[in-house]
UniProtKB/TrEMBL annotation:
Keyword Transport in annotation: yes
Taxonomic superkingdom: Bacteria
Keywords assigned: Cytoplasm, Kinase, Magnesium, Metal-binding, Phosphotransferase system, Pyruvate, Sugar transport, Transferase, Transport
Localisation: Cytoplasm
Protein's name according to its UniProt entry: Phosphoenolpyruvate-protein phosphotransferase
Species annotation: Flaviflexus ciconiae
Gene Ontology CC: cytoplasm
Binding residues annotated for Mg(2+), in chain numbering: 172, 196
Binding site for phosphoenolpyruvate: 48, 84, 195-196, 206
Enzyme class: transferase
Active site as annotated: 243 (proton donor)
EC number: 2.7.3.9
Residues of the full protein shown: 244 to 557 of 560
Length: 314
């Protein structure tokens, strides 16, 4: 039934009572941008630039990088595109941007931390993104992965704003979620990376199948942190997106909207599922479900309670 509904859903992206929701696509290259174009995505919420470079031994030139970004931006004229700077390291090893043989790469020099070793790698990438962005007639936002301190956020935002673009950070390290108010003062927007945030909050490797119950997207401890970030965004009047796997679960998507999240970014194939589910529930139901999951003792109960409320049986 859900599949039939999703097939028929053609938007607009909003709740049953017409509260608008921004549904965006996660992509990594031009082919992904083409899939996103064929979906109902309103734009790109996460462009994982590092995934284009997993098999690239040396740093591409600024011109080569510009061509790549241009090929993606060109598929979405007029639309918002959120580009993430290189998130190299750990589960996404990039030869030219990784520190080899770290004992604990998930806690190592990864994401924005790489620029502490080679700042030029980041600024050359930003220059390529800025050049491609100048030809794109929609808003281009740039965000950094794995930000853990306020000073990193301030430094990154300075680099981006002096080039005239909107600056954001991913919230995927618990420290950034805990201190969210101070981070929000430094940037224009934030995007929750629930995959890594869950891994670090639960101290459970995101890729380890034996730990799947810990990394369940409905873990109340993680949802509590997400709620704090979303509420802080509402207070500061700044956009808070979710671009991790949690956004692709239609019921959890409704919960996230209820918390105050302003956009959801996911694999293009999930957009119609999420869109059709949101069209069946009211914002009030989303808010009640969001409140309820915070009191659940475990992910199973959180999910059951939320679904009951979203189905009008709460
Ligand atoms: C995340 O961590 O949730 C995220 C969106 O980024 P990635 O999966 O690429 O680490
Ligand atoms: Mg991540």
């Amino acid at each position: 039934k859900r599949r039939a509904h999703a097939r028929e859903w053609t938007g607009p992206a909003q709740t049953k009572d017409e509260h608008p929701v921004e549904l965006l696509a996660n992509i990594q290259d031009r082919a992904g941008a083409e899939r996103a174009e064929a979906s109902q995505a309103a734009g790109i919420g996460l462009f994982r630039t590092e995934l284009s470079f997993l098999n690239t031994p040396t740093e591409p030139s600024i011109d080569e990088q510009t061509d790549l970004y241009r090929s993606v931006f060109g598929r979405f004229p007029g639309a918002k595109i959120v580009v993430r700077t290189l998130d190299a390291g750990s589960d996404k090893p990039v030869a030219f941007a990784s520190v080899p043989n770290e004992e604990n790469p998930a806690l190592g020099v990864r994401g924005l931390r790489t620029s502490g070793i080679d700042e030029g790698l980041l600024t050359r990438q930003i220059d390529a993104i800025v050049t491609a962005s100048a030809e794109h007639d929609g808003p281009n936002w740039i965000m950094a992965p794995m930000v853990s301190t306020v000073s990193e956020a301030r430094w990154f935002a300075g680099l981006i704003r002096e080039r005239g673009l909107k600056a954001g950070i991913m919230i995927e390290v618990p420290a950034a979620a805990i201190m969210i108010d101070q981070f929000l003062e430094e940037v224009d927007f934030v995007s929750l990376g629930t995959n890594d945030l869950t891994q670090y909050v639960m101290a459970a490797d995101r890729g380890n199948a034996n730990l799947a119950t810990y990394t369940d997207n409905w873990q109340p401890a993680v949802l509590t942190l997400i709620n704090q970030v979303a509420q802080a965004g509402v207070r500061h009047g700044k956009p808070v997106g979710v671009c991790g796997e949690a956004a692709a679960d239609p019921n959890l998507a409704a919960v996230l909207i209820g918390m105050g999240v302003t956009s959801l970014s996911m694999a293009p194939g999930a957009i119609a599922y999420v869109g059709s589910r949101l069209s069946e529930v009211t914002l009030q139901q989303c808010r009640e479900a969001a409140e309820a999951v915070l009191h659940a003792p475990d992910p199973i109960k959180a999910r059951q309670t939320a679904i009951a409320i979203l189905q009008g049986k709460g």
